[in-house]
């Protein structure tokens, strides 16, 4: 695993870039849902939202999440970087699991819109738009401050 130490700064940079792309998509997709709710089923506007949502998920959010997770695991395995006897890495891991779960919910909701089977309101999606933001804030504080 010494090669991870040699490439640490590159791995860290690529992890940050991929997390930024993942978060950009996770913040934008629920906002698209807010507007999609008001579009009449079968309308040009609704069909346009479906295309935008599918492309965002498949071309940005999914690949960015996968790359972020790969580089994140590489960082976690880099010798001397993470002290697993402390609480913060475990808390960050829990937050990442929750973020990945949120990703799964966004994917499910996108598929529901694709089939014109959405059951949620614009207010619901406005609230869900805040979840990735709160998780991101907690993750960054956990990584930088290492409060426990």
Characterise the protein shown here.
By secondary structure, the protein is mainly α. The chain has one domain. Helices cover 80% and strands 0% of the residues. The chain is built from 6 helices and no strands.
SSE blueprint and pairings:
Elements: H1 2-6, H2 8-37, H3 44-77, H4 88-114, H5 122-128, H6 130-145
Helix pairs in contact: 2-3, 2-4, 2-5, 3-4, 4-6
What's the order of the H and E elements? HHHHHH
Number of domains: 1
Please state the structural category.
mainly alpha
How helical, in percent, are the residues? over 70%
Mean pLDDT: 96
Strand content: under 5%
Low-confidence stretches: none
- Total count of strands: 0
Largest sheet: none
- Total helical segments: 6
**Nearest-angstrom radius of gyration?**
18 Å
Distance between the termini: 27 Å
Tell me, briefly, the overall form.
elongated
């Amino acid at each position: 695993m010494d090669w991870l130490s040699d490439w640490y700064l590159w791995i860290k940079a690529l992890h940050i870039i991929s997390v930024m792309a993942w978060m950009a998509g996770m913040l934008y997709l629920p906002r698209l849902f807010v507007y999609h709710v008001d579009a009449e089923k079968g309308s040009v506007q609704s069909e346009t939202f479906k295309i935008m949502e599918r492309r965002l998920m498949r071309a940005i959010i999914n690949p960015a999440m996968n790359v972020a997770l790969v580089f994140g695991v590489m960082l976690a395995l880099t010798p001397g970087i993470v002290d697993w006897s402390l609480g913060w890495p475990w808390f960050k891991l829990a937050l990442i699991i929750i973020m990945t779960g949120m990703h799964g919910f966004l994917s499910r909701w996108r598929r529901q819109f694709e089939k014109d089977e959405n059951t949620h309101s614009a207010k619901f999606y406005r609230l869900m738009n805040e979840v990735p933001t709160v998780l991101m804030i907690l993750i960054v504080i956990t990584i930088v401050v290492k409060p426990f």
